[in-house]
DNA sequence: AATGATAGTGTATGAAACACACTTACCAAT
DNA sequence: ATTGGTAAGTGTGTTTCATACACTATCATT
């Protein structure tokens, strides 16, 4: 390749912090590296950016290739450019974070050759490169995001109960929330549609199922409304 | 250069959205490009990342080189990687935004060969590359930032009056703010130290000068306190 | 019929947001 | 010295929102 600039190019990667929720713990999807460096270490899914794709496209492609996940909530997080973050040469990584619904969890775990596994956020193994730092920043971002934008449903099945939603908020934020206040507030936003269905699990009163209303959400976003829970 | 990876490298640039405040308008520092592409167009200060420097270092170096500004508030904004954002070849740009105190404005305008000029945010000329998009996102970020973190003083002189601070908030957020409520709220955070000095300008009652208390601010940040105005 | 488990609901209190108008201090002009 | 113009500075009442808190309803199991 001919250099039109006199400046050296850098190898570019994308890395994805994939969050999931199993009803109790916030989880992160990790893959075990098959090649050096950091062979056999756990790492964030990701890989090199190709010249003919945008950064977002690269992130989505890598997600499919390494975890089988597609059509997930995906947002750019931060770009990491420390000089020695890759032992081989200068590699700059654009980090993304993804929110994945439970329906996709099985696909994610089972797909392809490289081993992929969900880890609870409280029990993350040592990670390759500076991926621990990336994960740390992603978690902070998720916490912030969750408190001022209704993205929680991205981590839940299409139909969910208010208790499930509350458990999710508690897991991500690491706090206990009062049930009545939580329901009052969540419902006041008028973004949840009660379904005719109920969830019957176990020997107790069945729970009302809701689904998220994306139309109303878009309307709110356009008006610049944000809000916290 | 020998490729240890089989993937092509990309040219990497940093671009800086430099915000200033002249007492009335929020302003942005632009430079006129001396070389193609977009020769003679206005653009954000920025340039290529070198292999031996981090992204932050590159952003600060370019700021000094192109505008003479140093020791300013600087934060990474977003990374832009559309394929055709540079007409020559694939260039990925890590955008930053900076907040500059008025004392530095003159230095900024006067330095070096390339022409540099402050433009009010309401009268930005056509910009090179996708810099209009970058500016747009930076402005949104600044608005968000200002509403939940006390960064306003980064755009004011070391000594400032509450009215100046209010004008700044009004200029950035594009709203009118009630004087009494604003003062009540700002002072309640206990981050401003009243000085023995007053500002006398014009035929009216002189205004109390304050300075920001960085020590108390750090203490708040550590506790994870954020707040809005 | 009794037990155990989770769903679901209302009210009272305190804190913060918001709306709102007049007095004070200085300068300049007469 | 008085007047007029200009921006600084100040307090209260109202409303809205956050928080704390305990019991009843419904189902499955025995």
From TrEMBL, chains A, B:
PROSITE patterns: NUDIX, NUDIX_BOX. The lineage of its organism: Bacteria, Pseudomonadati, Verrucomicrobiota, Verrucomicrobiia, Verrucomicrobiales. It comes from the Bacteria. Keywords: Hydrolase. Residues 11-143 form the Nudix hydrolase domain. Belongs to the Nudix hydrolase family. One of its GO terms (molecular function) is hydrolase activity. It holds the Pfam family WHD_NrtR. CDD domains: NUDIX_NadM_like (cd18873). The keyword Membrane does not apply. This is NUDIX hydrolase.
